[in-house]
Write a structure and sequence with these properties.
alpha+beta, 6-stranded antiparallel β-sheet, elongated, MoaC_sf, molybdenum cofactor biosynthesis, cyclic pyranopterin monophosphate synthase activity
Length: 158
C-alpha cells in the first residue's frame, strides 16, 4: 500500500507522530569509474579544485543533512552521524572508486534516503572536481546495502 497519497490521490507527507523512536542505520553504495589519468591526479593531489576525496566527503555529509530539502516527502530528521568510506578497485584500464555511506539517527523514520543522497552527491562531487581532466567518468549504480531499525525491520541486500 502506498502511503504518500491522501484520499483524493494527491501527494502527502506520511504522518509519523504515532511511531516510536528507535536507533536507525542505513548504508548505501555508489561508484565512479575513471581513467588512470584521473586516478593519478586524485592520488597525487593534482586537481586544481583541491583534495577531491576530502571535499567529496564533506559534500556527502552536507547532502545527508539536506535530504529533506531535496526529496519532497522526506521528513527533516536529526542526523546522529555520517561516515563515508572509499575503496579503489582496478577494472582493466578503468579505475573504479567505490563509495560507501553509513548514516545514523535516533528517530521515528529511517535514513535510507539520506544515505542514498549522500552516496549520489559524493559521486557527483568527484565528477565535478575532476571533469577538467577527463569528462568520460561514469557514475555507477547507487543502491541501499542495508538498513536497521523501525517497524518494518532490517533489510540487507543479498
Amino acid at each position: 500500500m502506498l502511503t504518500h497519497f491522501n484520499n483524493d490521490g494527491r501527494a502527502k507527507m506520511v504522518d509519523i507522530s504515532e511511531k516510536n523512536s528507535s536507533n536507525r542505520i542505513a548504508m548505501a553504495k555508489s561508484s565512479i569509474q575513471m581513467s588512470r589519468k584521473v586516478y593519478e591526479a586524485i592520488k597525487n593531489q593534482n586537481i586544481k579544485k583541491g583534495d577531491v576525496l576530502s571535499v567529496a566527503q564533506v559534500a556527502g555529509i552536507m547532502a545527508a543533512k539536506q535530504t529533506s530539502s531535496l526529496i519532497p516527502m522526506c521528513h527533516p530528521i536529526p542526523i546522529s552521524g555520517v561516515n563515508i568510506d572509499f575503496e579503489w578497485k582496478n577494472v582493466d584500464e578503468q579505475i573504479e572508486l567505490m563509495i560507501k555511506v553509513e548514516v545514523k539517527t535516533v528517530g521515528k523514520t529511517g535514513v535510507e534516503m539520506e544515505a542514498l543522497t549522500a552516496a549520489s552527491i559524493t559521486a557527483l562531487t568527484i565528477y565535478d572536481m575532476c571533469k577538467a581532466v577527463d569528462k568520460s567518468m561514469i557514475i555507477g549504480s547507487t543502491y541501499l546495502l542495508e538498513k536497521s531499525g523501525g517497524k518494518n525491520g532490517d533489510y540487507k541486500r543479498s
